[in-house]
Amino acid sequence: MKRSLIIINIVALFLTSCGSIRPQAERIPAADSTCQEIIKAFFQEEKSDSLEADLKAFLKIDMTDEEANDFFKEFSDSKLSTLDEDTLRAIFLYGKEDASVRRDLLKEFHHQLSGKDIDENDKVWEKFAAHKRKVDDKKQKMIAKEESAAGKKAASEKGQIFEKLYYRCKTQIQGKPTPLAYKQAKHLTYAIMAGSFGSTVISYSTVHRDEEKNKKWFNELFFSLGIELMFNYIGGRFVLTNPNLNPWKGKMPMAFLSSTLSDVGVSGAYAFFFKPDNSELEKKLKELEKDPKAQQKLQELLKIAEENNLYEKHLKKTQDLFKDKRTGKSMNPADFDHEVTIEDIDIEESRELLLAALTEQEYQENSGMMQTGHPAVDRFTFHRIFSLISVPTTIGMTMLMHNQMCMTEDPKKGFMKAVGLFLGTSMLMDTIYFNGKEVLINQ
């Protein structure tokens, strides 16, 4: 009985130590250490405190206690000398942020080493194997380019860095987002905002460089900047960089929907802040009576009023707007037995109708090629057409930015690369946007 307890304690000590050992950075294991020697070293007191460090060195990666536990759970009873350390290292890197993925892959790898067939329905292993083939191919090409031994060694080290960064990227786009993925998404949103700010200023200033730099010029610039920053933050945070959404099945429909809903308010806000200057229209109205071409202009305004159903909006006042100068009675234009002249109009009473007609005339004369009847609707329609290009482009660009950030070893350099990529692409898109908006709707 006593002997049995001693054996049980030894086994328990072995299993516990595998999960709680601490690395000794100052101790570097021999280059020819094998997995069997590493495990056997555990039973030698003088080496028991360096087991985790030896395992890290064997796989050439940093390892947590939890990861070491997963390793020993699957392989403590296997012929460890048969292990392929490249595959094992790839498994740990690919499953770095998701323990369930790592354990599934280790279990499947163990099955294969035991002579069992690959589970064709194991989508996790299938996806991992595809990524590993891509990484191995890249590493082999990097080494093949070099001729000298020193060059091949340097290429091998670069290949290991590429491998580590590549798998780090892939851990952020697996089915279950990791804390690292959420952190990266937050940084990506800031990169989008920084890039869009610079792009909007440069593109707007370039497209409108020949216009007078008056209050309206700066107000439209600040309006564009405010809208860009606000919706890039909201759309970026909850749609474009959201790690829970598939880029094309989730992000694209939501991006179209959110841009449509938000643009209702934006187009309305634009119409409110940049509506026609009524003071100029009032001035034109006062000058109408003295204008030598008053009769011609009046007929144009009345025609516009009739074509755009403006009479209906002022139906209750219509008879007060027009007076028969011979009798002094209020009349409806249809009751006149002659063409309405400037003398037949009570300018004060007809102010609202004529201002509405003048506004419509200004719209028709100053609008672009695409006219819907209202500046806000013009803007909304143009945005819906432009979104057919901008939404897929932005989603694709966001994916490239994410790749730039996670494939760059230095986070600051990765962030700047992402900003530069967004800035360059956005400048092209903004140039198309501002030029198209000016030509099609003249806004």
Features:
single chain, 443 residues, mainly alpha, 2 domains, two-stranded antiparallel sheet, 2 strands
Describe this structure in words.
The protein is mainly α and 443 residues long. It folds into two domains: 2-171, no CATH class; 179-275 and 373-440, no CATH class. The protein is 70% helix and 1% strand. The protein is built from 18 helices and two strands. It has helices at residues 2-20, 35-41, 51-59, 65-75, 85-94, 99-113, 123-144, 149-171, 179-207, 215-240, 247-273, 278-288, 294-307, 310-313, 318-321, 351-366, 375-406, 411-440, and strands spanning 322-323, 330-331. The protein has a two-stranded antiparallel ribbon with strand order 1-2. A hairpin with a 6-residue loop joins β1 (322-323) and β2 (330-331). α4 (65-75) runs parallel beside α6 (99-113). The longest helix has 32 residues, at 375-406. It starts with a helix and ends with a helix. This is Lipoprotein. It comes from Bacteriovorax antarcticus.
